[in-house]
Each structure stands twice: as C-alpha cells, then as structure tokens.
Specification:
65 residues; 2 helices; Heme exporter protein D
C-alpha cells in the first residue's frame, strides 16, 4: 500500500495533480450554478424595474399636477 501512495517516487507530482484536477472539477460544477443564480436575480430586478416604470407611466403622481 505504501508503494501505491509513493507512486514510485513521483507522489510529489501525482497527488497534487489529482488535487488540482478535483478542484477544477468542483469549480466547473459550481460556477454555472452561481452564474445562473446571479443571472436570475438580475433578471428579476430588471423585470421589477420595468414593472415599476410601467406603473408610474399608467398612474402619474398627484404631486406633479
């Protein structure tokens, strides 16, 4: 078992490569999730601003009259 983990003397290169691979794999899985959440939040905010703008155009304020 020790020989397997030592990787024939190349363990200092092999195990970090596995670590970097799994970090990149995790990032590749998480980044689209966070990007989707951010885009959906921005879209909801944009729709809310448009709705508010339409509401103001339909019912002008009495203070400006």
């Amino acid at each position: 078992m020790h020989a397997f983990f030592a990787m024939g003397g190349y363990a200092a290169y092999v195990w970090p490569a596995y670590g970097v691979f799994f970090i990149v794999l995790l990032a590749d899985w998480l980044v689209p999730h966070f990007r989707r959440r951010r885009l959906l939040r921005e879209l909801r905010e944009r729709i809310a601003r448009q709705d508010a703008r339409k509401e103001r155009a339909i019912r002008p304020s009495t203070a400006s009259s």
